[in-house]
Fold this sequence. Notes:
Helix content is 84%, strand content 0%. It has 19 helices and no strands. α1 packs antiparallel against α8 (160-190).
Amino acid sequence: MATTTIGLLGTFREFGLSAAAIQAPTLPDEDRDALFWFNFLSTTAVSCAVLLIAPAVASFYREPQVEFLLKLAALGFFISGLSTQHNALLRRTLSFGAIFMADFGGLFIGSAVAVALAIYSADAVSLVVGSIVQAAFSSVVTIWLGRWLPHAPRNLRAHLKHASFGANVSVFSLLNFLTNNIASIVVGRWGDATAMGFLNRAQSLYALPSNFILGPYLQVQFPLLCRAFNNDEETRRIYSSLLLFTGITFIPAGVVLPFVAADLTRIILGPQWIETGRILAWFSPAIVSLGLIGPFGQYMTSQGRVRELSLWGLGDFAIRGGGAAFGAVFGAQQAAAGFSLATLVVATPILVWITVRHGPFRFRDYVSSGYPGILIGLTTLVAVLLSKMIADSGSIESLVLVLSFSGTAWILTMFALARTRDLLLRPNPKGNNVGALQK
């Protein structure tokens, strides 16, 4: 409950200013300093807001401990916000080695602290303290490796164009967060902490592929897309590669998920979390959709179409958030089903249309980039169905068989198709001109 609230307010802390720093064609020292101070002000304001609303949130969920957890989490929230612009500048220059050192070091140390405290106390406070330690370590290392300290604020009004750009990105981020978490909020308010816990854990597992596969890939590709702005051919090439990658990764994964979710969750988390596995299976259509529209937000931001992006956030909240909220009235599984089906059936076609209607990416580019993932998904589905005919569900042997069959079909089809084979064996066949784009 506390984490959901912090995540909601976290969309305001950055205020879209990281995207503004990366997307800007040039970034003089004055702009860089202004972005830092804009970020500092938004971080301070939102951290204070966390402290102020903590009692109301605890009352909303009818859980008194949420108030203390939120007040404690506000410290880590503030600390992590101090290095946001330093992280954005490292990404702008593709300095991902430095980002890795800061993020991995913070994750390792913060997780160690959290696990040690959890073993000792078995209390949610351990997770919050771990996040504070993680934020402190990552921020210090990010600032140190960034080798830059801002000057005192001067004439911030002259740099409000960046704040305006960031505001549109922030509105989209806020609405996107609400869309993805409205079901948890509804279940937590009108259900109980246990039901919300099952749904929240399923959502966390659903987000793992995006966080650990798509997220890092987009961190690299987003600055390149920004540098390719006004170069239509380069933009189409980069975004085509992005969609090709997401298609062959997430469409087959979404196809396999309903057949393995329950068994996989039971093995990873234990039999007491079997309900989470049943909920997770319903996120399959949403994962398939990631293969087709996963990089949409980064594409629109790189093209400067942030006003359209923020307006779509309202439609997205009505479509996907509405589906999730309606389903949540009936239960956690229905919430996941409403969210996923609305994503695949309604939101995905609209996002494809928005992407291509002003170019430079065209519908035929979409077809060319998307068909390998769809074809691989179909062959993977056939392999899964064959494996289910051989072994009964509910055993480790059945899970291994399904994963083996589907994985084999996945790999063989990827190497059978020329485009995916080139992506795997020659990931930069035409030259990415990274050096020129960096400059």
